[in-house]
Amino acid sequence: MGRDNAAVAKELRVSVRSVQRWRRDWEDRGTQGLRSRGPVSRPKLNDALFAVLEKDLDRGPAAHGRPDPVAGNSGNCTEFVVNFMRPGG
Questions:
Q1: What's the domain range around 79?
Q2: Mean pLDDT in the chain?
Q3: Overall domain count for the chain
Q4: The pTM is what?
Q5: d(CA 27, CA 5)
Q6: 36-53 pLDDT tens trace
Q7: Both 29 and 53 in a single domain?
Q8: Do 53 and 30 share a structural domain?
Q9: Are residues 51 and 81 in the same domain?
Q10: At what angle do helices 16-29 and 5-12 cross, to 10 degrees?
């Protein structure tokens, strides 16, 4: 079987349970068992809301009170998206 599940999980930074699931799927269905089945949950934004968010993000940080964005700082984007998702945001 090769390396144990815990070692693989640690290297890939996933849960041991995920590795167990992958191994079981591979044993049951071969490489087809490892193909992605898509996201587990539905997207949180419908197409209309995603279009609004995309348009707002395209306006840039200055339009949202952030004239000096720090390169590599995803916190500003995260904060914007969280605020956008709030009712009335």
A1: 47-85
A2: 78
A3: 2
A4: 0.43
A5: 14
A6: 887 777 777 788 888 888
A7: no
A8: no
A9: yes
A10: 110
